[in-house]
Protein backbone atom coordinates (compact mmCIF):
# COMPACT_ATOMS: atom_id res chain seq x y z
CA UNK A 1 0.00 0.00 0.00
CA UNK A 2 1.18 3.52 -0.63
CA UNK A 3 0.22 4.74 2.87
CA UNK A 4 1.63 3.30 6.08
CA UNK A 5 -1.01 1.85 8.42
CA UNK A 6 -1.03 -0.29 11.53
CA UNK A 7 -1.56 -3.83 10.28
CA UNK A 8 -4.48 -5.82 11.64
CA UNK A 9 -3.96 -9.39 12.84
CA UNK A 10 -5.37 -11.76 10.19
CA UNK A 11 -8.79 -12.98 11.18
CA UNK A 12 -9.24 -10.33 13.88
CA UNK A 13 -12.51 -8.44 14.10
CA UNK A 14 -12.64 -5.06 12.37
CA UNK A 15 -14.04 -2.60 14.84
CA UNK A 16 -13.88 -1.81 18.53
CA UNK A 17 -16.42 -1.58 21.29
CA UNK A 18 -18.59 1.53 21.76
CA UNK A 19 -20.93 2.80 24.44
CA UNK A 20 -24.51 1.49 24.10
CA UNK A 21 -25.78 4.51 22.13
CA UNK A 22 -22.90 4.36 19.69
CA UNK A 23 -23.19 0.58 19.44
CA UNK A 24 -26.87 0.91 18.50
CA UNK A 25 -26.05 3.62 15.98
CA UNK A 26 -23.28 1.45 14.55
CA UNK A 27 -25.63 -1.50 14.10
CA UNK A 28 -28.08 0.83 12.36
CA UNK A 29 -25.27 2.08 10.11
CA UNK A 30 -24.31 -1.42 9.00
CA UNK A 31 -27.96 -2.27 8.29
CA UNK A 32 -28.42 0.95 6.29
CA UNK A 33 -25.23 0.34 4.34
CA UNK A 34 -26.41 -3.17 3.47
CA UNK A 35 -29.76 -1.80 2.26
CA UNK A 36 -28.01 0.83 0.14
CA UNK A 37 -25.78 -1.82 -1.40
CA UNK A 38 -28.69 -4.11 -2.17
CA UNK A 39 -30.74 -1.27 -3.69
CA UNK A 40 -28.04 0.45 -5.75
CA UNK A 41 -25.05 -1.87 -6.00
CA UNK A 42 -26.66 -5.24 -6.55
CA UNK A 43 -23.57 -6.75 -8.13
CA UNK A 44 -21.47 -5.79 -5.07
CA UNK A 45 -24.24 -7.11 -2.86
CA UNK A 46 -24.38 -10.56 -4.46
CA UNK A 47 -20.60 -10.81 -4.45
CA UNK A 48 -20.32 -9.75 -0.81
CA UNK A 49 -22.95 -12.31 0.20
CA UNK A 50 -20.27 -14.96 -0.35
CA UNK A 51 -18.07 -13.46 2.39
CA UNK A 52 -18.15 -14.29 6.09
CA UNK A 53 -20.50 -11.92 7.93
CA UNK A 54 -17.71 -9.89 9.50
CA UNK A 55 -16.06 -9.08 6.18
CA UNK A 56 -19.38 -8.70 4.38
CA UNK A 57 -20.50 -5.79 6.53
CA UNK A 58 -17.23 -3.93 5.95
CA UNK A 59 -17.75 -4.15 2.18
CA UNK A 60 -21.28 -2.81 2.66
CA UNK A 61 -20.01 -0.03 4.95
CA UNK A 62 -17.49 1.27 2.41
CA UNK A 63 -20.07 1.06 -0.36
CA UNK A 64 -22.65 2.83 1.82
CA UNK A 65 -20.36 5.81 2.39
CA UNK A 66 -19.43 5.96 -1.30
CA UNK A 67 -23.09 5.82 -2.29
CA UNK A 68 -24.00 8.58 0.17
CA UNK A 69 -21.33 10.87 -1.27
CA UNK A 70 -22.25 9.95 -4.84
CA UNK A 71 -25.91 10.74 -4.23
CA UNK A 72 -24.97 14.16 -2.84
CA UNK A 73 -23.30 14.94 -6.17
CA UNK A 74 -25.69 13.23 -8.58
CA UNK A 75 -28.98 14.06 -6.85
CA UNK A 76 -28.52 17.57 -5.46
CA UNK A 77 -32.27 17.99 -4.78
CA UNK A 78 -32.39 21.58 -6.00
CA UNK A 79 -29.26 22.69 -4.17
CA UNK A 80 -26.70 24.72 -6.07
CA UNK A 81 -23.07 23.64 -6.60
CA UNK A 82 -21.84 25.63 -3.61
CA UNK A 83 -24.36 24.02 -1.28
CA UNK A 84 -23.52 20.54 -2.61
CA UNK A 85 -19.81 21.24 -2.18
CA UNK A 86 -20.42 22.36 1.41
CA UNK A 87 -22.44 19.21 2.17
CA UNK A 88 -19.74 17.02 0.62
CA UNK A 89 -17.05 18.80 2.65
CA UNK A 90 -19.10 18.31 5.83
CA UNK A 91 -19.50 14.59 5.10
CA UNK A 92 -15.75 14.21 4.52
CA UNK A 93 -14.91 16.12 7.71
CA UNK A 94 -17.32 14.04 9.78
CA UNK A 95 -15.85 10.82 8.38
CA UNK A 96 -12.29 11.97 9.03
CA UNK A 97 -13.17 12.91 12.61
CA UNK A 98 -14.95 9.60 13.12
CA UNK A 99 -11.87 7.73 11.95
CA UNK A 100 -9.95 9.57 14.66
CA UNK A 101 -12.43 9.36 17.51
CA UNK A 102 -14.51 6.29 16.69
CA UNK A 103 -17.69 8.33 17.23
CA UNK A 104 -20.26 9.96 14.93
CA UNK A 105 -23.90 10.99 14.88
CA UNK A 106 -24.33 9.65 11.32
CA UNK A 107 -24.86 5.87 11.28
CA UNK A 108 -23.39 5.25 7.80
CA UNK A 109 -20.38 7.44 8.57
CA UNK A 110 -19.88 5.61 11.87
CA UNK A 111 -20.07 2.20 10.15
CA UNK A 112 -17.58 3.18 7.46
CA UNK A 113 -15.16 4.82 9.89
CA UNK A 114 -15.37 1.88 12.31
CA UNK A 115 -14.60 -0.61 9.54
CA UNK A 116 -11.78 1.58 8.24
CA UNK A 117 -10.24 1.92 11.73
CA UNK A 118 -10.42 -1.76 12.52
CA UNK A 119 -9.35 -3.03 9.09
CA UNK A 120 -6.53 -0.54 8.62
CA UNK A 121 -7.89 1.31 5.57
CA UNK A 122 -5.78 4.48 5.29
CA UNK A 123 -7.57 7.79 5.74
CA UNK A 124 -5.67 9.03 2.67
CA UNK A 125 -7.74 6.63 0.54
CA UNK A 126 -10.92 8.39 1.62
CA UNK A 127 -9.32 11.78 0.93
CA UNK A 128 -8.66 10.67 -2.67
CA UNK A 129 -12.25 9.48 -2.97
CA UNK A 130 -13.75 12.75 -1.75
CA UNK A 131 -11.44 14.75 -4.02
CA UNK A 132 -12.86 12.87 -7.01
CA UNK A 133 -16.42 13.56 -5.81
CA UNK A 134 -15.61 17.27 -5.67
CA UNK A 135 -14.19 17.06 -9.18
CA UNK A 136 -17.60 15.92 -10.41
CA UNK A 137 -18.98 19.30 -9.32
CA UNK A 138 -16.70 21.24 -11.63
CA UNK A 139 -15.55 18.89 -14.41
CA UNK A 140 -18.10 17.72 -16.95
CA UNK A 141 -15.87 16.09 -19.59
CA UNK A 142 -12.36 14.69 -20.08
CA UNK A 143 -10.04 15.34 -23.01
CA UNK A 144 -8.02 12.11 -22.88
CA UNK A 145 -8.05 8.65 -21.35
CA UNK A 146 -5.19 9.76 -19.11
CA UNK A 147 -7.34 12.66 -17.84
CA UNK A 148 -10.23 10.31 -17.13
CA UNK A 149 -7.89 7.91 -15.32
CA UNK A 150 -6.86 10.80 -13.08
CA UNK A 151 -10.48 11.18 -11.99
CA UNK A 152 -11.07 7.43 -11.76
CA UNK A 153 -8.08 7.02 -9.45
CA UNK A 154 -10.18 8.54 -6.67
CA UNK A 155 -13.64 7.50 -7.80
CA UNK A 156 -12.92 3.85 -8.61
CA UNK A 157 -9.35 2.56 -8.33
CA UNK A 158 -9.07 3.65 -4.71
CA UNK A 159 -12.22 1.67 -3.85
CA UNK A 160 -10.37 -1.45 -4.94
CA UNK A 161 -7.46 -0.43 -2.71
CA UNK A 162 -9.84 0.05 0.22
CA UNK A 163 -11.07 -3.51 -0.18
CA UNK A 164 -7.63 -5.10 0.18
CA UNK A 165 -7.36 -4.71 3.99
CA UNK A 166 -10.87 -6.16 4.27
CA UNK A 167 -10.27 -9.14 1.98
CA UNK A 168 -6.78 -9.89 3.34
CA UNK A 169 -4.78 -11.11 0.33
CA UNK A 170 -1.63 -13.13 0.90
CA UNK A 171 0.98 -10.55 2.06
CA UNK A 172 3.54 -12.25 -0.19
CA UNK A 173 1.39 -11.29 -3.21
CA UNK A 174 0.73 -7.68 -2.18
CA UNK A 175 2.75 -6.31 -5.12
CA UNK A 176 0.35 -8.01 -7.54
CA UNK A 177 -2.78 -7.50 -5.44
CA UNK A 178 -2.80 -3.71 -5.46
CA UNK A 179 -2.63 -3.22 -9.27
CA UNK A 180 -5.26 -5.92 -9.72
CA UNK A 181 -7.57 -4.32 -7.14
CA UNK A 182 -7.15 -0.95 -8.83
CA UNK A 183 -7.87 -2.48 -12.24
CA UNK A 184 -11.07 -4.06 -10.94
CA UNK A 185 -12.29 -0.74 -9.58
CA UNK A 186 -11.53 0.93 -12.92
CA UNK A 187 -13.23 -1.88 -14.84
CA UNK A 188 -16.41 -1.64 -12.76
CA UNK A 189 -16.65 2.10 -13.24
CA UNK A 190 -15.90 2.02 -16.97
CA UNK A 191 -18.71 -0.54 -17.36
CA UNK A 192 -21.01 1.95 -15.60
CA UNK A 193 -19.86 4.74 -17.90
CA UNK A 194 -20.55 2.67 -21.03
CA UNK A 195 -23.97 1.55 -19.79
CA UNK A 196 -25.05 4.99 -18.52
CA UNK A 197 -24.01 7.35 -21.34
CA UNK A 198 -27.55 8.70 -21.67
CA UNK A 199 -28.06 9.16 -17.93
CA UNK A 200 -24.75 10.98 -17.62
CA UNK A 201 -25.71 13.27 -20.50
CA UNK A 202 -28.89 14.12 -18.58
CA UNK A 203 -26.63 15.24 -15.72
CA UNK A 204 -24.50 17.31 -18.09
CA UNK A 205 -21.52 14.95 -17.92
CA UNK A 206 -19.57 13.05 -20.55
CA UNK A 207 -17.16 10.38 -19.31
CA UNK A 208 -16.10 9.05 -22.71
CA UNK A 209 -12.79 10.78 -23.53
CA UNK A 210 -13.02 13.55 -26.11
CA UNK A 211 -10.05 12.08 -27.99
CA UNK A 212 -12.06 8.88 -28.53
CA UNK A 213 -15.21 10.70 -29.59
CA UNK A 214 -13.22 12.81 -32.06
CA UNK A 215 -11.26 9.88 -33.45
CA UNK A 216 -14.39 7.91 -34.28
CA UNK A 217 -16.43 10.96 -35.29
CA UNK A 218 -19.16 10.57 -32.66
CA UNK A 219 -21.61 13.40 -31.90
CA UNK A 220 -23.15 12.58 -28.52
CA UNK A 221 -25.78 15.28 -28.91
CA UNK A 222 -27.55 12.93 -31.32
CA UNK A 223 -28.14 10.44 -28.48
CA UNK A 224 -28.44 7.56 -30.92
CA UNK A 225 -26.49 4.65 -32.34
CA UNK A 226 -25.76 4.24 -36.03
CA UNK A 227 -27.90 2.24 -38.39
CA UNK A 228 -24.72 0.58 -39.68
CA UNK A 229 -22.62 -1.82 -37.63
CA UNK A 230 -19.55 -0.06 -39.06
CA UNK A 231 -20.80 3.41 -38.08
CA UNK A 232 -18.90 5.73 -35.73
CA UNK A 233 -20.88 5.02 -32.55
CA UNK A 234 -20.50 1.27 -32.72
CA UNK A 235 -16.83 1.59 -33.68
CA UNK A 236 -16.31 3.74 -30.56
CA UNK A 237 -18.17 1.25 -28.38
CA UNK A 238 -16.19 -1.71 -29.71
CA UNK A 239 -13.00 0.13 -28.75
CA UNK A 240 -14.28 1.00 -25.26
CA UNK A 241 -15.64 -2.51 -24.62
CA UNK A 242 -12.27 -3.99 -25.54
CA UNK A 243 -10.60 -1.48 -23.20
CA UNK A 244 -13.00 -2.57 -20.47
CA UNK A 245 -12.19 -6.25 -21.04
CA UNK A 246 -8.48 -5.50 -20.77
CA UNK A 247 -9.04 -3.99 -17.31
CA UNK A 248 -11.03 -7.03 -16.20
CA UNK A 249 -8.23 -9.31 -17.42
CA UNK A 250 -5.70 -7.30 -15.41
CA UNK A 251 -7.94 -7.66 -12.36
CA UNK A 252 -8.19 -11.43 -12.86
CA UNK A 253 -4.42 -11.67 -12.49
CA UNK A 254 -4.78 -10.88 -8.77
CA UNK A 255 -7.54 -13.32 -7.86
CA UNK A 256 -5.25 -16.17 -6.86
CA UNK A 257 -3.71 -14.05 -4.06
CA UNK A 258 -7.02 -13.81 -2.18
CA UNK A 259 -8.24 -16.28 0.47
CA UNK A 260 -10.93 -18.66 -0.79
CA UNK A 261 -13.87 -16.72 0.64
CA UNK A 262 -12.64 -13.41 -0.72
CA UNK A 263 -11.81 -15.08 -4.04
CA UNK A 264 -15.40 -16.24 -4.33
CA UNK A 265 -16.73 -12.78 -3.47
CA UNK A 266 -14.56 -10.91 -5.96
CA UNK A 267 -15.02 -13.52 -8.68
CA UNK A 268 -18.82 -13.33 -8.41
CA UNK A 269 -18.81 -9.53 -8.56
CA UNK A 270 -16.34 -9.52 -11.45
CA UNK A 271 -18.23 -12.10 -13.50
CA UNK A 272 -21.58 -10.38 -12.94
CA UNK A 273 -20.29 -6.92 -13.82
CA UNK A 274 -18.68 -8.22 -17.00
CA UNK A 275 -22.06 -9.67 -17.98
CA UNK A 276 -23.21 -6.06 -18.46
CA UNK A 277 -20.77 -5.82 -21.38
CA UNK A 278 -22.43 -8.87 -22.91
CA UNK A 279 -25.83 -7.25 -22.47
CA UNK A 280 -24.56 -4.07 -24.16
CA UNK A 281 -23.30 -6.14 -27.08
CA UNK A 282 -26.62 -8.01 -27.21
CA UNK A 283 -28.24 -4.60 -27.78
CA UNK A 284 -25.93 -4.09 -30.79
CA UNK A 285 -23.93 -1.62 -28.66
CA UNK A 286 -26.93 0.74 -28.55
CA UNK A 287 -26.97 1.90 -24.93
CA UNK A 288 -29.54 4.54 -25.79
CA UNK A 289 -32.15 1.85 -26.54
CA UNK A 290 -32.44 0.77 -22.90
CA UNK A 291 -30.39 0.09 -19.79
CA UNK A 292 -28.31 -3.08 -20.00
CA UNK A 293 -29.27 -5.19 -17.00
CA UNK A 294 -28.36 -8.58 -15.60
CA UNK A 295 -31.44 -10.39 -14.29
CA UNK A 296 -31.59 -11.07 -10.55
CA UNK A 297 -32.05 -14.82 -11.14
CA UNK A 298 -28.84 -14.80 -13.17
CA UNK A 299 -27.00 -13.02 -10.36
CA UNK A 300 -28.22 -15.58 -7.86
CA UNK A 301 -27.23 -18.42 -10.18
CA UNK A 302 -23.70 -17.09 -10.69
CA UNK A 303 -23.27 -16.55 -6.95
CA UNK A 304 -24.39 -20.12 -6.27
CA UNK A 305 -22.02 -21.60 -8.86
CA UNK A 306 -19.07 -19.57 -7.61
CA UNK A 307 -19.86 -20.55 -4.02
CA UNK A 308 -19.63 -24.22 -4.98
CA UNK A 309 -16.42 -23.78 -6.98
CA UNK A 310 -13.21 -24.96 -5.26
CA UNK A 311 -11.24 -22.75 -7.67
CA UNK A 312 -13.25 -19.58 -8.39
CA UNK A 313 -10.32 -17.90 -10.16
CA UNK A 314 -10.51 -20.63 -12.80
CA UNK A 315 -14.20 -19.79 -13.19
CA UNK A 316 -13.24 -16.16 -13.92
CA UNK A 317 -10.49 -17.10 -16.38
CA UNK A 318 -12.99 -19.25 -18.29
CA UNK A 319 -15.49 -16.39 -18.48
CA UNK A 320 -16.12 -15.66 -22.16
CA UNK A 321 -17.35 -12.13 -21.41
CA UNK A 322 -13.74 -11.14 -20.58
CA UNK A 323 -11.62 -13.92 -22.07
CA UNK A 324 -13.18 -14.66 -25.48
CA UNK A 325 -11.77 -17.67 -27.27
CA UNK A 326 -8.39 -16.71 -28.73
CA UNK A 327 -7.82 -13.66 -26.52
CA UNK A 328 -6.50 -15.33 -23.37
CA UNK A 329 -3.42 -13.96 -21.69
CA UNK A 330 -0.42 -15.01 -23.77
CA UNK A 331 -0.24 -15.51 -27.51
CA UNK A 332 -3.76 -14.32 -28.28
CA UNK A 333 -5.81 -13.99 -31.39
CA UNK A 334 -3.99 -12.27 -34.24
CA UNK A 335 -0.50 -12.58 -32.74
CA UNK A 336 1.47 -15.15 -34.78
CA UNK A 337 4.20 -14.93 -32.14
CA UNK A 338 4.42 -13.49 -28.66
CA UNK A 339 7.97 -12.19 -28.39
CA UNK A 340 8.81 -9.80 -25.61
CA UNK A 341 9.05 -6.14 -26.59
CA UNK A 342 11.22 -3.45 -25.00
CA UNK A 343 9.26 -0.81 -23.06
CA UNK A 344 10.59 2.75 -23.22
CA UNK A 345 10.38 5.99 -21.31
CA UNK A 346 9.79 9.32 -23.08
CA UNK A 347 13.53 9.68 -23.71
CA UNK A 348 13.74 6.31 -25.47
CA UNK A 349 15.48 4.49 -22.61
CA UNK A 350 14.55 0.90 -21.83
CA UNK A 351 12.40 0.62 -18.70
CA UNK A 352 11.24 -2.99 -18.95
CA UNK A 353 9.91 -5.68 -21.23
CA UNK A 354 6.61 -7.52 -21.68
CA UNK A 355 4.94 -10.01 -24.04
CA UNK A 356 3.74 -8.33 -27.21
CA UNK A 357 0.16 -9.55 -26.83
CA UNK A 358 -0.14 -8.14 -23.31
CA UNK A 359 1.03 -4.58 -23.98
CA UNK A 360 -0.78 -3.93 -27.26
CA UNK A 361 -4.18 -2.69 -26.18
CA UNK A 362 -6.20 0.50 -25.83
CA UNK A 363 -3.48 2.18 -23.76
CA UNK A 364 -0.34 0.65 -25.27
CA UNK A 365 2.82 1.87 -23.51
CA UNK A 366 5.64 3.36 -25.54
CA UNK A 367 7.86 0.56 -26.83
CA UNK A 368 10.62 -0.17 -29.32
CA UNK A 369 9.87 -1.14 -32.92
CA UNK A 370 11.11 -0.57 -36.48
CA UNK A 371 9.82 -0.23 -40.04
CA UNK A 372 11.68 -1.47 -43.09
CA UNK A 373 11.36 -0.57 -46.78
CA UNK A 374 12.74 -3.29 -49.04
CA UNK A 375 14.06 -1.92 -52.35
CA UNK A 376 14.90 -3.89 -55.52
CA UNK A 377 17.74 -3.14 -58.02
CA UNK A 378 15.37 -0.90 -60.04
CA UNK A 379 14.57 1.29 -57.03
CA UNK A 380 11.07 -0.10 -56.54
CA UNK A 381 9.68 -0.52 -53.00
CA UNK A 382 8.01 -3.69 -51.79
CA UNK A 383 4.53 -2.72 -50.56
CA UNK A 384 2.63 -5.28 -48.48
CA UNK A 385 -0.93 -5.87 -47.32
CA UNK A 386 -1.05 -6.99 -43.72
CA UNK A 387 -2.79 -10.29 -43.01
CA UNK A 388 -6.50 -9.82 -42.40
CA UNK A 389 -6.35 -11.78 -39.16
CA UNK A 390 -3.67 -9.65 -37.49
CA UNK A 391 -4.58 -8.10 -34.16
CA UNK A 392 -2.95 -4.79 -35.08
CA UNK A 393 -4.16 -2.93 -38.19
CA UNK A 394 -5.38 -5.98 -40.12
CA UNK A 395 -5.61 -5.74 -43.90
CA UNK A 396 -3.99 -2.31 -44.33
CA UNK A 397 -1.51 -1.54 -47.12
CA UNK A 398 1.85 -0.57 -45.71
CA UNK A 399 5.65 -0.71 -45.94
CA UNK A 400 7.58 -3.92 -46.49
CA UNK A 401 8.00 -5.19 -42.94
CA UNK A 402 7.56 -4.09 -39.32
CA UNK A 403 8.62 -5.63 -36.05
CA UNK A 404 10.05 -5.31 -32.57
CA UNK A 405 13.66 -5.94 -31.55
CA UNK A 406 13.77 -8.56 -28.84
CA UNK A 407 15.36 -7.48 -25.55
CA UNK A 408 19.11 -7.24 -26.16
CA UNK A 409 18.80 -7.92 -29.90
CA UNK A 410 20.72 -5.54 -32.21
CA UNK A 411 18.47 -3.57 -34.52
CA UNK A 412 19.95 -4.91 -37.75
CA UNK A 413 19.59 -8.51 -36.59
CA UNK A 414 15.95 -7.84 -35.70
CA UNK A 415 15.24 -6.39 -39.15
CA UNK A 416 16.88 -9.29 -40.97
CA UNK A 417 14.96 -11.75 -38.80
CA UNK A 418 11.57 -10.13 -39.45
CA UNK A 419 12.13 -9.68 -43.22
CA UNK A 420 13.04 -13.35 -43.41
CA UNK A 421 10.05 -14.33 -41.23
CA UNK A 422 7.39 -12.20 -42.94
CA UNK A 423 8.59 -12.16 -46.56
CA UNK A 424 10.96 -15.10 -46.93
CA UNK A 425 13.68 -12.72 -48.15
CA UNK A 426 17.35 -12.54 -47.20
CA UNK A 427 18.98 -9.14 -46.92
CA UNK A 428 22.53 -9.26 -48.24
CA UNK A 429 25.63 -7.71 -46.71
CA UNK A 430 26.17 -5.09 -49.41
CA UNK A 431 29.59 -3.71 -50.15
CA UNK A 432 32.00 -1.23 -48.54
CA UNK A 433 30.40 2.20 -48.69
CA UNK A 434 27.10 0.69 -49.85
CA UNK A 435 25.52 -1.33 -47.00
CA UNK A 436 22.47 -3.42 -47.86
CA UNK A 437 20.68 -2.28 -44.69
CA UNK A 438 20.82 1.21 -43.26
CA UNK A 439 18.81 3.45 -40.93
CA UNK A 440 17.35 6.45 -42.74
CA UNK A 441 14.91 7.87 -40.16
CA UNK A 442 16.54 7.11 -36.79
CA UNK A 443 14.23 9.21 -34.62
CA UNK A 444 10.81 8.39 -36.05
CA UNK A 445 7.98 7.56 -33.67
CA UNK A 446 4.20 7.54 -33.85
CA UNK A 447 0.91 6.86 -32.11
CA UNK A 448 -2.01 5.44 -34.09
CA UNK A 449 -5.18 3.54 -33.32
CA UNK A 450 -7.81 1.14 -34.62
CA UNK A 451 -11.16 0.25 -33.08
CA UNK A 452 -9.35 -2.39 -31.00
CA UNK A 453 -6.02 -0.97 -29.89
CA UNK A 454 -3.47 1.83 -29.99
CA UNK A 455 0.05 1.55 -31.39
CA UNK A 456 2.63 3.69 -29.59
CA UNK A 457 6.18 3.18 -30.81
CA UNK A 458 9.64 4.63 -31.22
CA UNK A 459 10.16 3.18 -34.65
CA UNK A 460 13.42 3.80 -36.56
CA UNK A 461 12.94 3.42 -40.32
CA UNK A 462 15.40 1.38 -42.37
CA UNK A 463 15.87 0.67 -46.08
CA UNK A 464 17.05 -2.76 -47.21
CA UNK A 465 18.40 -3.62 -50.65
CA UNK A 466 17.75 -7.05 -52.17
CA UNK A 467 18.89 -8.57 -55.47
CA UNK A 468 15.58 -9.98 -56.70
CA UNK A 469 12.99 -8.21 -58.90
CA UNK A 470 10.22 -10.81 -58.68
CA UNK A 471 7.68 -10.44 -55.85
CA UNK A 472 8.41 -12.81 -52.95
CA UNK A 473 6.39 -16.01 -52.85
CA UNK A 474 7.20 -17.33 -49.37
CA UNK A 475 4.95 -14.88 -47.47
CA UNK A 476 4.02 -15.77 -43.90
CA UNK A 477 0.21 -16.17 -44.05
CA UNK A 478 -0.28 -14.90 -40.50
CA UNK A 479 1.67 -11.72 -41.25
CA UNK A 480 1.28 -10.74 -44.91
CA UNK A 481 -1.65 -11.19 -47.31
CA UNK A 482 0.06 -9.76 -50.40
CA UNK A 483 3.30 -8.12 -51.57
CA UNK A 484 3.94 -6.09 -54.72
CA UNK A 485 6.74 -3.93 -56.10
CA UNK A 486 5.66 -0.29 -56.45
CA UNK A 487 7.46 2.53 -58.15
CA UNK A 488 8.40 5.13 -55.57
CA UNK A 489 6.26 7.94 -57.11
CA UNK A 490 3.20 5.68 -56.83
CA UNK A 491 3.75 5.19 -53.11
CA UNK A 492 4.32 8.93 -52.61
CA UNK A 493 1.04 9.69 -54.38
CA UNK A 494 -0.81 7.07 -52.32
CA UNK A 495 0.54 8.53 -49.09
CA UNK A 496 -0.66 12.00 -50.07
CA UNK A 497 -4.21 10.79 -50.84
CA UNK A 498 -6.34 10.44 -47.67
CA UNK A 499 -8.69 8.07 -49.52
CA UNK A 500 -6.08 5.34 -49.93
CA UNK A 501 -5.93 2.57 -47.34
CA UNK A 502 -2.31 3.12 -46.31
CA UNK A 503 -1.34 2.49 -42.71
CA UNK A 504 -1.00 5.71 -40.69
CA UNK A 505 2.70 5.12 -39.99
CA UNK A 506 3.46 4.41 -43.65
CA UNK A 507 1.67 7.60 -44.67
CA UNK A 508 3.77 9.65 -42.24
CA UNK A 509 7.02 7.87 -43.07
CA UNK A 510 6.66 8.26 -46.84
CA UNK A 511 6.14 12.01 -46.43
CA UNK A 512 9.43 12.18 -44.49
CA UNK A 513 11.29 9.82 -46.82
CA UNK A 514 10.25 11.83 -49.86
CA UNK A 515 12.43 14.67 -48.52
CA UNK A 516 15.47 12.40 -48.80
CA UNK A 517 15.24 12.12 -52.58
CA UNK A 518 13.39 10.40 -55.41
CA UNK A 519 15.51 7.25 -55.45
CA UNK A 520 15.23 5.00 -52.37
CA UNK A 521 18.55 3.35 -53.32
CA UNK A 522 20.33 6.64 -52.63
CA UNK A 523 18.66 7.79 -49.44
CA UNK A 524 21.38 8.94 -47.04
CA UNK A 525 21.97 7.15 -43.77
CA UNK A 526 20.61 8.96 -40.72
CA UNK A 527 22.56 10.03 -37.66
CA UNK A 528 22.83 6.94 -35.40
CA UNK A 529 23.01 9.22 -32.35
CA UNK A 530 19.31 9.94 -32.90
CA UNK A 531 18.33 6.31 -32.39
CA UNK A 532 16.42 5.50 -29.18
CA UNK A 533 18.81 5.14 -26.24
CA UNK A 534 17.60 1.57 -25.77
CA UNK A 535 19.46 0.69 -28.98
CA UNK A 536 22.81 2.12 -27.94
CA UNK A 537 24.24 -1.30 -27.17
CA UNK A 538 24.66 -3.79 -29.98
CA UNK A 539 23.76 -1.48 -32.87
CA UNK A 540 26.42 -1.19 -35.58
CA UNK A 541 27.21 2.51 -35.83
CA UNK A 542 29.02 3.51 -38.97
CA UNK A 543 31.28 6.49 -39.31
Number of strands: 14
- Biggest sheet statistics: 4 strands, mixed
Task: Trace the largest sheet across and list its strands.
Answer: 7-4-13-10
Number of helices: 18
**Spans of 5+ residues with little confidence (pLDDT < 50)?**
1-13, 326-332, 537-543
- Fraction of residues in β-strands: 5-15%
Calculate the mean pLDDT score and round it: 89
Mind telling me the C-alpha Rg?
Answer: 27 Å
Shape: elongated
Distance between the termini: 51 Å
Describe the structure.
The chain has 543 residues and is of the alpha+beta class. It contains 18 helices and 14 strands. The protein has helices at residues 20-40, 42-48, 53-74, 81-101, 107-119, 123-138, 145-167, 174-195, 197-202, 210-216, 232-252, 260-282, 296-308, 312-317, 356-359, 411-423, 488-496, 504-513, and strands spanning 340-344, 350-355, 367-368, 370-375, 381-386, 397-398, 401-403, 430-431, 434-435, 437-441, 445-449, 454-458, 461-465, 480-486. The strands form five sheets. It has a four-stranded mixed sheet with strand order 7-4-13-10. A three-stranded mixed sheet has the order 3-12-11, with no helix packed on it. The longest helix is centred in the first third of the chain and has 23 residues, at 145-167. The two termini are 51 Å apart.
